[in-house]
UniProtKB/TrEMBL annotation:
Keywords: Endoplasmic reticulum, Membrane, Transmembrane, Transmembrane helix. The keyword Nucleus does not apply. PANTHER family: MICROSOMAL SIGNAL PEPTIDASE 25 KDA SUBUNIT (PTHR13085), SIGNAL PEPTIDASE COMPLEX SUBUNIT 2 (PTHR13085:SF0). This is Signal peptidase complex subunit 2. Component of the signal peptidase complex (SPC) which catalyzes the cleavage of N-terminal signal sequences from nascent proteins as they are translocated into the lumen of the endoplasmic reticulum. Enhances the enzymatic activity of SPC and facilitates the interactions between different components of the translocation site.
Length: 212
């Protein structure tokens, strides 16, 4: 196994899915310009805010119970805190299942186009499924489709993850990524299509100035 290669249990769909999900962010964030997507963390930040607020309230009520005694927990402000805790937990559950809804990447290009990718694993099958929605800067849908492929396309028999087959599959299925792959190949001559244009250019710069 190559140094630094990721290896996961081949019979664990959750591990296969998580590793694949995690590979989407560096790929989409390092595409050649003008196709690079800047990840939008708004939904994740809101989830963290709700979750941490609920934890803070739980810690406060625990302190009130342990340090101030049972009588203090009967006060209106403690009861309000408990109600707030359960309300926030309900909101967090709704946010995760209805708002984020398995979204693993949301990003925007400098030109305003945005992409949303949601992932899932088909029950009882080793299939990785994505729902992709690509929109223009004005919000109109340019491409929306469901795609799926077996994990064996990018995982070896011993569980070693190979990102290039995953990227090739995505580029074949998603139009904007196909254009980005073509741009990468044009800029690098196909030498660094799996590692990105920036790395190829940095390596080329070590050899001296470019010829004009």
């Amino acid at each position: 196994m190559a140094s630094g290669a990721t290896k996961v249990p081949v019979y664990s769909p959750n591990d296969l899915k998580s590793t694949t999900d995690d590979a989407l962010v560096p790929y989409l964030s390092t595409l050649p310009q003008p196709y690079t997507f800047k990840q939008d963390h708004t939904k994740t930040n809101i989830r963290f805010l709700i979750g941490y607020s609920a934890v803070a309230i739980a810690a406060f009520t625990f302190y009130a119970d342990r340090k101030l005694g049972w009588e203090a927990t009967q006060s209106p402000w403690v009861i309000a805190a408990v109600v707030s805790y359960f309300t926030l937990n309900s909101l967090l559950t709704y946010w995760v299942w209805a708002v984020e809804a398995s979204e693993v990447f949301r990003g925007t290009r400098k030109s305003g186009e945005s992409i949303s990718i949601r992932s899932s694993v088909k029950k009882h099958t080793p299939l990785y499924k994505l729902h992709v929605q690509y929109k223009s800067a004005s919000g109109s849908v340019l491409q929306e489709k469901d795609i799926e492929a077996p994990f064996t396309v990018w995982f070896a028999g011993d569980g070693t993850f190979h990102p290039e087959p995953l990227r090739s599959w995505l580029a074949k299925e998603i139009e904007v990524l196909r254009l980005a792959a073509a741009e990468t190949e044009k800029k690098t001559g196909g030498v660094a299509s799996v590692v990105g244009v920036e790395e190829a250019e940095s390596k080329g710069g070590k050899g001296g100035k470019k010829r004009r």
